[in-house]
């Protein structure tokens, strides 16, 4: 005799209660996407429209911009939001196209390592950038450096 289960019987166990990380990942993607639109268009406007436009972007332009803590934090926030947004998107793709197991864990671990390394290096570049390094020949320094 064959028994057919009731159609209302769940195929899998009910989801566990507590923190729902997928929900928070989904919310982060929406919030960071909106913030990134503002940050990226602000970045593009300042770099391309204000002043002399794209022909003025050089080492001195970046050095002068990053001399202001406001622009340092603007660029770091854009870096962090974009990298975490992209890594979370890639994590979603890994979840969609791989089965749970060793391969999925390795791919997610590689994503995590890559994101952390890029976040640390990018943040260090922005906050430790010195356009006027001590001991450099004056002819190699930008015009705004005291020794130039």
TrEMBL record:
The subcellular location is: Membrane
Q: Which UniProt keywords apply?
A: Heme, Iron, Membrane, Metal-binding, Transmembrane, Transmembrane helix
Q: Does the keyword Cell cycle apply?
A: no
Chief location of this protein within or outside the cell = membrane
**Is Transmembrane there in the keyword field?**
yes
- Mention any Pfam family matching this sequence: Sdh_cyt
Transmembrane regions listed in the UniProt entry = 27-50, 70-88, 109-129
* Name the record gives this protein: Succinate dehydrogenase, hydrophobic membrane anchor protein
**Known InterPro entries for this protein?**
SQR/QFR_C/D, SuccDH_FuR_B_TM-su
Task: Enumerate the CDD domains for this protein.
Answer: SQR_TypeA_SdhD_like
Q: Look up the domain of life of the source.
A: Bacteria
């Amino acid at each position: 005799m064959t028994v057919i289960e009731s159609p209302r019987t769940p195929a899998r166990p009910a989801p566990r209660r507590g923190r729902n990380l997928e929900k928070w990942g989904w919310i982060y993607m929406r919030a960071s996407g909106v913030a990134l639109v503002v940050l990226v268009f602000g970045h593009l406007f300042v770099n391309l429209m204000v002043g002399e436009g794209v022909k003025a972007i050089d080492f001195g332009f970046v050095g002068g911009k990053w001399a202001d803590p406001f622009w340092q934090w603007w660029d770091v926030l854009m870096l962090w939001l974009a990298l975490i947004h992209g890594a979370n998107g890639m994590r979603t793709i890994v979840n969609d196209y791989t089965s749970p197991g060793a391969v999925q864990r390795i791919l997610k671990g590689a994503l995590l390592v890559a994101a952390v390394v890029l976040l640390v290096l990018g943040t260090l570049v922005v906050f430790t950038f010195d356009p006027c390094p001590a001991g450099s020949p004056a002819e190699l320094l930008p015009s705004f450096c005291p020794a130039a």
